[in-house]
């Protein structure tokens, strides 16, 4: 009530946010803090020029969201809150240190399908891409932004085809830059999977994107989630174009088929990885020339192994 009575006074909003932050450690205050998210974001929007207030508001929202996730509470932030966050993103898009926190907050918010949909509605995707282009070197920002992109692109009711298509080269650039950073590469592979699933990869992008995904698998073979999502992305690319299937067979750095075999043997006890590999192979055998090559490389033997390992799946 104190904050709502004086929106225009920055000191009141700053003191209010600081006071609310003092309750974060008190578990019994959590249900009340959950109801304060709109008040906090409105204070941030009203005093958007104050970086200090933005930082304190962002930190408090992160604390509340972290507790919500710990307790299994999904926070479906409405469109007004999404709009406030977008204003903050636009106003402080050049402040790298602040963006690390803000992008982490956006990633946590987008875990909710409703909140992700609201972020998409207010048009945050071009701003995310702009941030990625500017801070391609920053692994924390790249990780968070790719995770948000995945959440926004994976939604089925997507009306942003042109915007999403422009995300493919940017996400590929992130993966290329951070191939050796497993956490960022995993996030970028997931985003590319969602984008390819939506048919956003053009014919000319299929081959280089497939080659890049194979590089990610080679560089991070031990990361089961990356392998699974990388294979799912490859399957979507193969579904879009035979060029992607041929790129897997004829990759200049070594046979993609041998790589698939190696990944399976490394993760033979992971049903998610096996399923993704089967999906990829199923897409590849739709092309006669590719199927003949797979047969010559004894893929039937691998399929038999998978069938024995997962007889009830």
Automatic annotation (TrEMBL):
Entry protein name: Serine/threonine kinase-like domain-containing protein STKLD1
Q: Could you tell me what reaction this enzyme catalyses? A: L-threonyl-[protein] + ATP = O-phospho-L-threonyl-[protein] + ADP + H(+); L-seryl-[protein] + ATP = O-phospho-L-seryl-[protein] + ADP + H(+)
Keyword Nucleotide-binding listed = yes
Q: Which organism is it from?
A: Eulacestoma nigropectus (wattled ploughbill)
Q: Which PANTHER family does this entry report, sorted A to Z?
A: SERINE/THREONINE PROTEIN KINASE, SERINE_THREONINE KINASE LIKE DOMAIN CONTAINING 1
Q: What is its EC number?
A: 2.7.11.1
Q: Which Gene3D superfamilies match?
A: Leucine-rich Repeat Variant
Q: Name one GO molecular function term.
A: ATP binding
């Amino acid at each position: 009530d104190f904050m709502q009575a004086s929106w225009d006074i920055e000191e009141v909003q700053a003191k209010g946010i600081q006071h609310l932050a003092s309750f974060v450690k008190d578990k019994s205050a959590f249900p009340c803090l959950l109801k304060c998210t709109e008040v906090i974001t409105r204070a941030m929007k009203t005093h958007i020029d104050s970086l200090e207030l933005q930082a304190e508001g962002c930190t408090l929202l992160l604390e509340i969201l972290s507790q919500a996730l710990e307790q299994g509470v999904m926070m479906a932030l409405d469109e007004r809150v999404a709009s406030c966050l977008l204003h903050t993103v636009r106003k402080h898009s050049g402040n790298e240190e602040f963006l690390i926190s803000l992008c982490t907050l956006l990633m946590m918010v987008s875990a909710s399908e409703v909140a992700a949909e609201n972020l998409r509605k207010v048009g945050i995707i071009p701003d995310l891409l702009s941030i990625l282009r500017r801070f391609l070197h920053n692994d924390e920002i790249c990780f968070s932004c790719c995770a948000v992109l995945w959440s926004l692109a994976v939604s089925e009711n997507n009306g942003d085809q042109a915007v999403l298509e422009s995300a493919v080269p940017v996400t590929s650039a992130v993966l290329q830059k951070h191939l050796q950073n497993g956490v960022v590469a995993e996030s970028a592979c997931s985003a590319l999977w969602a984008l390819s699933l939506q048919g956003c990869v053009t014919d000319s992008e299929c081959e280089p994107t497939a080659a890049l995904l194979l590089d990610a698998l080679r560089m991070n073979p031990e990361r089961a989630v990356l392998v699974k999502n990388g294979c799912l992305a490859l399957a979507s690319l193969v579904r879009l174009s035979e060029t992607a299937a041929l790129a897997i067979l004829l990759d200049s750095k070594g046979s993609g088929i041998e790589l698939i075999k190696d990944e399976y043997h490394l993760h033979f006890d992971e049903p998610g990885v096996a399923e993704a590999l089967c999906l990829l192979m199923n897409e590849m055998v739709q092309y006669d020339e590719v199927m003949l090559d797979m047969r010559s490389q004894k893929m039937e033997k691998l399929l038999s192994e998978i069938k024995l390992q997962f007889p009830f799946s």
